[in-house]
Amino acid sequence: MILYEYPFNERIRTYLRLEHLFSQLGELVGRSSATDHHFAILTIFEIMEVAGRAELKTEVLKDLEKQKHVLNSYRGNPAISEAALDQVVAVLDHCFSALNGLPGKTGQSLNDIEWLMGLRSRSGIPGGTCEFDLPAYHAWRHFEVARRRADLMHWMSSLMPLAEAAAMLLKLLRDAGTPQKVMSTGGHFQQSLPSGRTFQLLRMRIDPSLGLIPEISANRLMVSVRFVKFTEPQRLQSVSEDAQFELSYCS
Protein backbone atom coordinates (compact mmCIF):
# COMPACT_ATOMS: atom_id res chain seq x y z
CA MET A 1 0.00 0.00 0.00
CA ILE A 2 1.20 3.53 -0.81
CA LEU A 3 0.60 6.10 1.91
CA TYR A 4 -0.34 9.68 1.03
CA GLU A 5 -0.73 12.37 3.69
CA TYR A 6 -2.38 15.77 3.44
CA PRO A 7 -2.02 18.45 6.17
CA PHE A 8 -4.98 20.64 7.08
CA ASN A 9 -2.87 23.54 8.40
CA GLU A 10 0.50 25.18 7.93
CA ARG A 11 1.94 23.91 11.22
CA ILE A 12 1.44 20.26 10.30
CA ARG A 13 2.69 21.02 6.80
CA THR A 14 5.93 22.27 8.36
CA TYR A 15 6.25 19.18 10.59
CA LEU A 16 5.84 16.89 7.57
CA ARG A 17 8.46 18.81 5.62
CA LEU A 18 10.88 18.57 8.53
CA GLU A 19 10.21 14.84 8.88
CA HIS A 20 10.92 14.35 5.17
CA LEU A 21 14.15 16.34 5.34
CA PHE A 22 15.43 14.63 8.50
CA SER A 23 14.73 11.21 6.97
CA GLN A 24 16.64 12.23 3.84
CA LEU A 25 19.50 13.58 5.93
CA GLY A 26 19.84 10.38 7.95
CA GLU A 27 20.02 8.30 4.79
CA LEU A 28 22.63 10.54 3.16
CA VAL A 29 24.88 10.74 6.23
CA GLY A 30 24.91 6.94 6.45
CA ARG A 31 26.43 6.69 2.98
CA SER A 32 30.13 7.03 2.20
CA SER A 33 30.62 9.05 -0.97
CA ALA A 34 31.58 12.72 -0.92
CA THR A 35 28.67 13.44 -3.28
CA ASP A 36 26.18 11.97 -0.80
CA HIS A 37 27.72 14.05 1.99
CA HIS A 38 27.48 17.12 -0.23
CA PHE A 39 23.74 16.59 -0.53
CA ALA A 40 23.57 15.92 3.21
CA ILE A 41 24.93 19.42 3.80
CA LEU A 42 22.43 20.88 1.34
CA THR A 43 19.68 19.08 3.28
CA ILE A 44 20.96 20.65 6.51
CA PHE A 45 20.61 24.05 4.82
CA GLU A 46 17.03 23.18 3.80
CA ILE A 47 16.23 22.21 7.39
CA MET A 48 17.66 25.51 8.62
CA GLU A 49 15.47 27.31 6.09
CA VAL A 50 12.30 25.52 7.19
CA ALA A 51 13.17 25.86 10.88
CA GLY A 52 14.23 29.48 10.53
CA ARG A 53 10.86 30.99 11.43
CA ALA A 54 11.22 32.67 14.80
CA GLU A 55 7.88 31.34 16.06
CA LEU A 56 8.38 27.69 15.05
CA LYS A 57 10.28 26.69 18.18
CA THR A 58 7.59 28.30 20.34
CA GLU A 59 4.84 26.51 18.41
CA VAL A 60 6.53 23.12 18.85
CA LEU A 61 7.02 23.69 22.58
CA LYS A 62 3.36 24.66 22.93
CA ASP A 63 2.28 21.52 21.05
CA LEU A 64 4.44 19.33 23.30
CA GLU A 65 2.87 20.91 26.40
CA LYS A 66 -0.61 20.53 24.93
CA GLN A 67 -0.09 16.84 24.22
CA LYS A 68 1.28 16.30 27.73
CA HIS A 69 -1.82 17.98 29.21
CA VAL A 70 -4.14 15.82 27.08
CA LEU A 71 -2.37 12.62 28.11
CA ASN A 72 -2.35 13.54 31.79
CA SER A 73 -6.12 14.02 31.61
CA TYR A 74 -6.42 10.26 30.95
CA ARG A 75 -4.93 9.34 34.32
CA GLY A 76 -7.27 7.27 36.43
CA ASN A 77 -9.01 5.84 33.37
CA PRO A 78 -9.09 2.04 33.83
CA ALA A 79 -8.85 1.53 30.06
CA ILE A 80 -5.50 3.36 29.94
CA SER A 81 -2.22 1.79 31.06
CA GLU A 82 -0.50 4.09 33.56
CA ALA A 83 2.89 2.62 32.66
CA ALA A 84 2.38 3.34 28.94
CA LEU A 85 1.11 6.80 29.80
CA ASP A 86 4.16 7.53 31.94
CA GLN A 87 6.45 6.38 29.13
CA VAL A 88 4.90 8.69 26.53
CA VAL A 89 4.82 11.66 28.92
CA ALA A 90 8.50 11.06 29.73
CA VAL A 91 9.35 11.22 26.01
CA LEU A 92 7.38 14.47 25.69
CA ASP A 93 9.26 15.90 28.70
CA HIS A 94 12.59 14.90 27.14
CA CYS A 95 11.66 16.50 23.80
CA PHE A 96 10.54 19.70 25.54
CA SER A 97 13.70 20.01 27.66
CA ALA A 98 16.06 19.28 24.75
CA LEU A 99 14.40 21.77 22.41
CA ASN A 100 13.90 24.43 25.08
CA GLY A 101 17.56 24.14 26.04
CA LEU A 102 18.77 25.23 22.62
CA PRO A 103 19.67 28.93 22.43
CA GLY A 104 17.78 30.93 19.80
CA LYS A 105 16.37 29.37 16.66
CA THR A 106 17.07 25.79 15.63
CA GLY A 107 20.49 25.50 14.00
CA GLN A 108 21.56 28.98 15.05
CA SER A 109 24.97 27.70 16.23
CA LEU A 110 25.78 26.68 12.64
CA ASN A 111 25.76 30.34 11.63
CA ASP A 112 29.06 30.72 13.51
CA ILE A 113 30.86 28.35 11.13
CA GLU A 114 32.06 30.85 8.56
CA TRP A 115 33.09 28.51 5.75
CA LEU A 116 29.89 26.50 6.14
CA MET A 117 27.80 29.64 5.79
CA GLY A 118 29.93 30.60 2.79
CA LEU A 119 28.95 27.27 1.27
CA ARG A 120 25.30 27.97 2.08
CA SER A 121 25.42 31.31 0.27
CA ARG A 122 26.94 29.65 -2.82
CA SER A 123 24.71 26.55 -2.82
CA GLY A 124 21.83 28.37 -4.51
CA ILE A 125 24.00 29.20 -7.53
CA PRO A 126 24.14 26.51 -10.25
CA GLY A 127 27.64 25.02 -9.99
CA GLY A 128 28.45 27.55 -7.27
CA THR A 129 30.26 25.05 -5.05
CA CYS A 130 33.04 24.21 -7.52
CA GLU A 131 36.59 23.85 -6.19
CA PHE A 132 37.73 27.18 -7.69
CA ASP A 133 34.94 28.98 -5.79
CA LEU A 134 35.28 27.12 -2.47
CA PRO A 135 38.72 25.50 -2.13
CA ALA A 136 38.17 24.83 1.60
CA TYR A 137 35.04 22.87 0.83
CA HIS A 138 36.84 21.02 -1.96
CA ALA A 139 39.47 19.99 0.60
CA TRP A 140 36.76 18.88 3.07
CA ARG A 141 35.23 16.60 0.42
CA HIS A 142 38.59 14.79 0.23
CA PHE A 143 38.68 14.05 3.98
CA GLU A 144 38.33 10.47 5.14
CA VAL A 145 34.74 9.21 5.32
CA ALA A 146 34.85 8.95 9.12
CA ARG A 147 35.94 12.56 9.52
CA ARG A 148 33.30 13.90 7.12
CA ARG A 149 30.61 11.85 8.85
CA ALA A 150 31.78 13.09 12.28
CA ASP A 151 31.46 16.68 11.08
CA LEU A 152 27.99 16.01 9.72
CA MET A 153 26.90 14.38 12.96
CA HIS A 154 28.22 17.36 14.91
CA TRP A 155 26.32 19.83 12.72
CA MET A 156 23.19 17.70 12.99
CA SER A 157 23.32 17.67 16.79
CA SER A 158 21.88 21.18 17.05
CA LEU A 159 18.98 20.14 14.81
CA MET A 160 18.07 16.80 16.38
CA PRO A 161 15.92 18.13 19.26
CA LEU A 162 13.57 19.59 16.64
CA ALA A 163 13.62 16.32 14.69
CA GLU A 164 12.71 14.30 17.78
CA ALA A 165 9.95 16.72 18.82
CA ALA A 166 8.36 16.81 15.37
CA ALA A 167 8.54 13.03 15.07
CA MET A 168 6.84 12.56 18.44
CA LEU A 169 4.07 15.04 17.68
CA LEU A 170 3.39 13.42 14.30
CA LYS A 171 3.33 9.94 15.88
CA LEU A 172 0.72 10.99 18.43
CA LEU A 173 -1.32 12.67 15.70
CA ARG A 174 -1.21 9.65 13.39
CA ASP A 175 -2.10 7.27 16.21
CA ALA A 176 -5.29 9.28 16.78
CA GLY A 177 -6.71 8.39 13.36
CA THR A 178 -9.08 5.48 12.72
CA PRO A 179 -8.81 3.91 9.22
CA GLN A 180 -11.97 3.43 7.18
CA LYS A 181 -12.54 1.75 3.82
CA VAL A 182 -14.09 4.07 1.25
CA MET A 183 -14.83 3.99 -2.49
CA SER A 184 -14.29 6.56 -5.21
CA THR A 185 -16.86 6.85 -7.99
CA GLY A 186 -15.81 7.64 -11.53
CA GLY A 187 -12.36 8.71 -10.41
CA HIS A 188 -13.61 11.16 -7.78
CA PHE A 189 -14.28 11.09 -4.06
CA GLN A 190 -15.90 13.72 -1.84
CA GLN A 191 -16.78 13.60 1.82
CA SER A 192 -18.19 16.24 4.14
CA LEU A 193 -16.44 16.54 7.47
CA PRO A 194 -18.41 16.53 10.73
CA SER A 195 -19.05 19.98 12.17
CA GLY A 196 -17.55 20.75 15.54
CA ARG A 197 -14.37 18.73 14.90
CA THR A 198 -11.04 20.07 13.72
CA PHE A 199 -8.85 17.65 11.82
CA GLN A 200 -5.14 18.25 11.28
CA LEU A 201 -4.03 15.42 9.00
CA LEU A 202 -5.55 13.19 6.34
CA ARG A 203 -3.92 9.82 5.64
CA MET A 204 -4.74 7.75 2.56
CA ARG A 205 -3.53 4.25 1.67
CA ILE A 206 -4.08 2.86 -1.80
CA ASP A 207 -3.03 -0.32 -3.56
CA PRO A 208 -0.12 0.51 -5.92
CA SER A 209 -1.31 -2.13 -8.39
CA LEU A 210 -4.23 0.19 -9.24
CA GLY A 211 -1.78 2.72 -10.67
CA LEU A 212 -3.83 5.60 -9.26
CA ILE A 213 -2.44 8.88 -7.95
CA PRO A 214 -4.66 10.98 -5.66
CA GLU A 215 -4.80 14.75 -6.05
CA ILE A 216 -6.16 15.83 -2.66
CA SER A 217 -7.74 19.10 -1.60
CA ALA A 218 -9.34 19.63 1.78
CA ASN A 219 -10.58 22.24 4.22
CA ARG A 220 -12.43 22.16 7.54
CA LEU A 221 -15.72 21.36 5.76
CA MET A 222 -14.93 18.89 2.99
CA VAL A 223 -12.37 16.53 1.49
CA SER A 224 -12.13 16.11 -2.27
CA VAL A 225 -9.93 13.64 -4.15
CA ARG A 226 -9.42 13.41 -7.91
CA PHE A 227 -7.57 10.36 -9.23
CA VAL A 228 -5.15 10.42 -12.14
CA LYS A 229 -2.66 7.94 -13.55
CA PHE A 230 0.45 7.95 -15.70
CA THR A 231 -0.02 7.22 -19.39
CA GLU A 232 2.55 6.95 -22.14
CA PRO A 233 4.60 8.98 -22.75
CA GLN A 234 4.63 9.79 -19.02
CA ARG A 235 1.62 12.06 -18.98
CA LEU A 236 -1.01 12.34 -16.28
CA GLN A 237 -4.57 11.58 -17.25
CA SER A 238 -7.84 11.63 -15.29
CA VAL A 239 -9.44 8.24 -14.68
CA SER A 240 -13.09 7.20 -14.64
CA GLU A 241 -12.98 3.85 -12.83
CA ASP A 242 -14.13 3.24 -9.26
CA ALA A 243 -11.52 2.32 -6.66
CA GLN A 244 -11.37 1.32 -3.02
CA PHE A 245 -8.86 2.85 -0.63
CA GLU A 246 -8.30 3.49 3.07
CA LEU A 247 -8.80 6.88 4.69
CA SER A 248 -7.96 8.21 8.16
CA TYR A 249 -8.69 11.61 9.71
CA CYS A 250 -6.35 12.60 12.53
CA SER A 251 -7.13 15.35 15.02
Question: Would you spell out the secondary-structure blueprint of this structure?
Answer:
Blueprint: E1 2-7, H1 10-29, H2 34-50, H3 56-72, H4 82-100, H5 114-123, H6 135-140, H7 145-157, H8 160-175, E2 180-184, E3 188-192, E4 201-206, E5 213-218, E6 222-231, E7 235-238, E8 243-250
Antiparallel strand pairs: 1-4, 2-8, 3-6, 4-8, 5-6, 6-7
Structure in words:
The two termini are 23 Å apart. The model has no long low-confidence stretch (mean pLDDT 91). This protein is of the alpha+beta class and 251 residues long. The longest helix is centred in the N-terminal third of the chain and has 20 residues, at 10-29. The chain has helices at 10-29, 34-50, 56-72, 82-100, 114-123, 135-140, 145-157, 160-175, and strands at residues 2-7, 180-184, 188-192, 201-206, 213-218, 222-231, 235-238, 243-250. The protein has eight helices and eight strands; from the N terminus they run βααααααααβββββββ. Strand 5 (213-218) and strand 6 form a beta hairpin. It has two domains: 10-172, YacF-like; 177-250, YacF-like domains (YacF-like). Helix 2 (34-50) packs parallel to helix 7. It is globular, with a radius of gyration of 22 Å. The strands form two sheets. It has a four-stranded antiparallel β-sheet. Strands 3, 5, 6 and 7 form a four-stranded antiparallel β-sheet that branches.
Keywords:
alpha+beta; 8 strands; four-stranded antiparallel β-sheet; 251 residues; 2 domains; YacF-like
The strand order across the widest sheet is 1-4-8-2
Q: Give the % helix.
A: 40-55%
From the coordinates shown, what is the CATH architecture of the largest domain?
A: Orthogonal Bundle
Q: Looking at the structure, what is the overall shape? A: globular
Q: Report the portion of residues in β strands.
A: 15-25%
What is the CATH topology of the largest domain? YacF-like
Number of domains: 2
H/E element sequence: EHHHHHHHHEEEEEEE
CATH class of the largest domain equals Mainly Alpha
**CATH superfamily placement of the largest domain:** YacF-like
The parts where pLDDT drops under 50 for at least 5 residues are none
- The radius of gyration computed from the alpha-carbon positions, rounded to a whole number of angstroms, is 22 Å
